[in-house]
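Good morning C.,

I know you're traveling, so I'll keep this short. The sequence:
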Amino acid sequence: MMRTRAIGLLAIGVALGIAASASAQSFPSRPVRIVSPYSAGAGPTLFLRMLAEPLSKAWSQPVIVDARPGASGFTAIDLAKRAAPDGHELLIVSDAHLAINPALFAQLPYDPERDLVPVARIYRTPFFVVVRSDGPYADVPALVAAAKARPGHVSYGSQYVGSPSHLGSAEIAYLTGTTMIHVPFSDQPQLYIAIANGDVDWALSTIASAQALVGAGRLRFLAIAGPRRSPALPDVPTLAETGGPAGLEVTSWLALMAPRGTPDEVVRRIHADVTRALDEPAVRDKLAAFGFEAAPGTPEEVVRARRAGAARYGEIIRRIGARAD
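The tokens, ready to paste straight into the viewer:
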């Protein structure tokens, strides 16, 4: 009896192994769609379209990037979590969707751990303190001194409540012992126009987001919120080098996800191909042009980064009382 049962369990295990192997070998059998919660013209979506080219060659199938912005990423995530778990429907998200939103929203319409499977980390992007070029702040100490001299008068903008730029800016205010006004914007370009016009004093920005107005001479980067200078802007000092809070790092990272239930063999196949694509010179050049830094990572590393980010950002959100609903 026991021998018969053991043989039966072995047969089931072999069958499952064969099925998983078959899933990996048959992937992809049709075009692959990557849903993006960002607009068609946003840096992440534009880079994904670049990444789609080597992936299309590797898979001999079209890779379509489908921009579905809005609703804090809920629209794109809902599409992905309801898709067939076979690797043909993927999702790109940032740490904001995975690590910040669970603490920010009282009722989140998705569970980052239960609804989605991590496939690969793609890149990270550092944030910089950006101000008006002809404004009163020559450096970070001047900005902090103004905030201390007039509590509640210096303002910083962000893309939305609970964004990495919002929480990072709030952390700078906390660490410098200042009280500043947060001004959230629903339209990202308007944020930088407001700074250039002097309506808002400063913001934390990625290179890609502010580069157009920096290039036009209307904005400038004062410092990078990180432990080391960026290869993309080597002349811009770190916060610590300018006398700002040491040890503070504000970054955002992007990860590729799949619907829960996607076979491990398929996840590993996609991860390997994405990692190879990220190592191609043309892809690396595109990353550098956007100010992004390649940061390929395993599914396990995505999980660890999500949990570390949730702990850190959760503390900031509780401290400042930020809510998004």
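Safe travels,
E.
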